[in-house]
Amino acid sequence: MESFLGRYRNLIILVGVLFLQVLGLAVQVKTGANEDKDTRLIRMWALGAITPFERALVWVQNSTGNVWHNYFYLRGVRAENRQLKEQIEQMRVEQVRFTEDAAQARRLQTLLAFKEQFISKTVAAQVIGTSGSDLSRIVTLDKGENAGIRRDMAVITADGIVGKVLLVSPNLAQVLLISDQSSGVGAILDKSRLQGVLRGTANGEVALERVMSDEQVQPGETVLTSGGDQIFPKGLPVGTVTRVGKGKDLFLSINIKPAANLSRLEEVLVLTEKQERESVADDHVRVRAADILAQRLPSVPDKPATVGTPTGVAQGASESSVGANTATKPAGAPGTNAAGSVKSASGNSPAKSTTVPVQPGKTAAQTSVAQKPKPVNKPSTEPKPDGAQDPPATQPSIVEQKPAPVPAQPDTPPPAQDNSPQ
Amino acid sequence: MALIVQAYVPKYFPSFAVYVDLPLLVTIFFAMARRNPVAGLFTGAIIGLVQDMLGSREIGIYGIAKTVVGYGASSLGVKLDVENAGARLLVTLGFYLVHSAVYFTVARGLVNSTQHWSWAHGVLAGLVNAFLGVILYFVLDRFKQRT
Fold it and tell me: A10 contacts in B (CB within 8 Å)?
């Protein structure tokens, strides 16, 4: 050893001096993907030096696990297979139900013109290492730029959110966990809809900040992402409230148990692409809000048709009353009936209007549209007194019609009452 | 002194900085004179780092290049006779090209600089430095003999 050092002393010193100068350069030089050059070269080199060993260890661990599971641990595989098949069948049934619910939710959201962020592309990556320090909660993934991962992309698991991408190199990436003190995630409480900011604490726990102390928050309440940080899509599970206490200033101190197990991360998903678009209903036919509401309202079956239609009865009654009124109208008083108590939307002689009965369960507009307009007036065949005029043809009126008051006449029978159904 | 001149003269003659590298000539001279590789590399490292500090680029590019030149020049000085003018001319030309190559490699590889390599410029500047170096070494030899 000493002879080696002695023989190559000058070369060793040269290499040492060059190495120190290269290190100095690496501390100064910043690099990164595209325009995002704020990662020091020396950090990338350190990661590049450590991660091959981490990859090798993970590979050995996985290989050993595979050998055990595939060749030795075969007990109960058939029974497990059967159980899993049954579970799959159950999940398929549930999926159909969920699909229906989701379609309904999307239709309703379309009505309110909500925008949604959809996760359209993800990359699965394996966790191969950590920062090795309590002060910074970081994990290293075995995929990087070449797989489409970029800085500030969201990282999730099937259970919930994990963190965001902090640093990327061609073949690996570092993820800042939500339990790190420097992380910040926009969050919202599921029931109370209170918004806050999720931060890590010094001892690795997760806390929800910026919730006013006069708000009511219960332990066990679910926390979701609010989408306000523009990194995580809205609605992803974050965790559950474990403890609520009084915090600093006017805010509550809320501890959260993360939904994802941050200390046992093996595989994660990196959201490489999100699309923000308005939710569109699946149906080809545009569904109106009124139709959806009408479907939900209790419906009353239509009444069976009785003898004579309601409009025919009304028309007959009105005609008979018109005939009676005309016959008994004194000369010079043609407007008596018109000045009666009956209102008409069209402004025509109300006694001559046709009443359109409103069917139960429907609005007057629907009823009037459904009803075919019938001719209102028939020319009277009885001789008219002087001054009397034929009323003009009118449109069917939707308005309720009251019987016109008939003046009492001597030596005349009382006129028939208008019993038109309303 | 060489650094001061290298920093001052381009104020009046801008092309001086493009074609002449006085600190390099001084490095080669002292490395060859000392004939100690360790001393030569440290001389080059110090001169190069100071030259970097005078600029706006990252510190260490000239340092690495001149460290390599200092080590090489002193190693060569141990093995060869570099007292005559012809040898000095060739040595200076060669080490100028080596210095340029190392600088270019470090600048492109580590610092991601958009440096371009030009053989014509390298050879021309090398010849200028070689001729200037021969004259400078002659003057410095005089100072060395007096001390």
Answer: 37-38, 41, 71, 75
Find out whether A202 and A136 touch, Cβ atoms under 8 Å. no
ipTM, 2 dp: 0.77
Report how far residue A187's alpha carbon sits from residue A67's, in angstroms, rounded to the nearest whole number: 42
Facing A14 at nearest CB: one of B41, B49, B63: B41
Largest CA distance in chain B: 46
> Looking at the domain assignment, is residue B47 inside a domain?
yes
In a domain, B39, yes or no: yes
Q: Which residues contact B87 (CB under 8 A, 6 or more apart)?
A: B80, B81
| Cα–Cα distance measured from residue A396 to residue A368, given in angstroms and rounded to the nearest whole number | 8
Kindly list the residues from chain A whose CB atom is less than 8 angstroms away from the CB atom of residue B40: none
Highest mean pLDDT among A96-100, A365-369, B5-9: A96-100
Tens digit of pLDDT for each residue in A317-357? 444 443 444 444 444 444 344 333 333 334 444 444 444 44
CB of A323 closer than 8 Å to CB of A381: no
| Structure tokens that stand for A376 in this block | 């209102």
* pLDDT tens track for B51-60: 888 777 788 8
Domain encompassing residue B34:
19-146
d(CA A238, CA B20) in angstroms, rounded, equals: 64
Q: Which of residues 337-376 of A touch B (CB under 8 A)?
A: none
Instruction: Report the domain count for chain B.
Output: 1
**Structure-block tokens of residue A101:** 């619910």
